[in-house]
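Page 37, top half.
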Amino acid sequence: MWDYSDKVKEHFFSPRNAGALDNANAVGDVGSLNCGDALRLMLKVDPDTETIQDASFQTFGCGSAIASSSALTEIIKGMKLDDALKVSNQDIADYLDGLPPEKMHCSVMGREALQAAIANYRGEVWSDDHEEGALICKCFAIDAVLIEETVRANKLSTVEDVINYTKAGGGCSSCHEGIEEILVKVMAERGETFSPHNVEIPEPPKPGKLTNLQRIKRIEMVLDSVRPQLQRDHGDIELVDVDGKTIYVNMTGACAGCQMEALTLQGIQQKLMEDLGEFVKIVPSRAGSLSRAASHP
């Protein structure tokens, strides 16, 4: 499981400014439900001073996505638009006292939503439809422009870094060569040399190659790998059913109803996606699931 700061937990369990914003005059939409993350950022901007008077969000995503969106709205309220545009994804992570490397893409999504909302207010065209750059990662629809900007802004140096910050390359891995070419280019600009052996990236199985039985066995193996940690806290997890992309589980013992249950399930979901090489959703089979933690656009 990832190590979340107390501030991340605070903004996940008690998100600020969640829900629709009445009289919003700026809206930014980024992400995709198909990719597992989507964010709508709404702003109320004073037209005379271009000051952000209020901000709100709706998101579909993991606990870090909710916390990052909550933090972003708190950061930008009271800012002028030009100052808000200077807010970086690292500023969002720093506000939360850090994010796990594997979750930095949530802060990047927040920065993009802010850019989209301000462009919307100013009547400018902002899009992530890859008109500016070639599509690099087809699994998560990430283009070259976003990867280059993120590598520059955060001084990334490995394919694993790019996966953590953008999700690009985290699916079938066929785009790793394209990501490496971008790393070579951007690192050369800052006088560094890219080494493809900095970090070994395990190649996940290709989607559609596993039989149903093999898939269930892989799911059970992942659950078995996290079970010892849950049992140390007097809890456990059991597989109930698999219905397409949805995996139903029961949290038992101390894990049932624990305030950390949602974050635990999100961590297990990420492990399952990495192992299976496809997007899946893990859902508690009992009533009252993760949906209580997020507002859907």
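Page 37, bottom half:
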Amino acid sequence: MSKSPKSLPTLTLNRRFVQDFVAKDPPCFALGMIEERDQPYAVLALRPGLEIPAGTTDLGFNLGHAVLGSADFELIQFTFEFYGFATYNVLLNPSNPLVRRVVSRMLERSDYFILTLGPEQQVCAFRADIGPRDLGGLRQNISRINASTTTPAQYRETLAQFRARPSPPGRLLNWVCRDQAAALDLTTDRLELAPAPARGTRPPADAEPHLLAEALDARIKALTQGGLTDIELFVAMADHLPLFKQLMDRTDPDELSALCATYPGLYRIAKVLEQIAAGIAAGDIRVPG
């Protein structure tokens, strides 16, 4: 999945849908339609609750999908893996008419958009580079998806089981705006999205500490699988250190200690930074002037 170029034409969504989506608590996810050059496409929209560093979004991400359930019911799973940063999952009930419309459009056009919305309403657009053989799991199960009778109770039970043991490991997004017809309406109340301005890696002031800690922990875990030394980890984490600074600014020492106890990766980078700071103060580490 690649990031859309800055020259991407104007994208259009339904204004009410966007307003309702932005009003929901993150991390969350919604389905809808988006228009480019007068053509409607499916859109998968994510609000992780913090700004994903530009260096990460420039790499694009991996979209996974699966059809879960049993002989009696089915759920659709989407997984969004932002390389080296974080993984997000969402489970959808295919008996929902909006889900069927959006998934059918994805398969009909072999083309769709994914949007990420940051806390300061930054929008980053990704356009799928897929062919007719992609999304094979959905294509093979489209008849079952269109005839799905999955009940709310079956959805909730499977969601609870997945939350307890997510596969792949990652943050579970809350599916919102699931019954909003406006999400599919591009004929009235149109909202045009201008190209997003260039962004740095500084996270917004209102990012929640636990989301920052989770993002840092996920990044560190991905890096340390390669057996990095402390100095190598420090260098590899350079573009994510603003997130750690933001976390320190938003927590007191006790809160930060509690987060470090919860997230082992966060604890390790905190100790690395502490050791480097001590080395600089003692003169053992020289900082270029």
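Margin note: Residues 65 and 136 are 9 Å apart (CA to CA).
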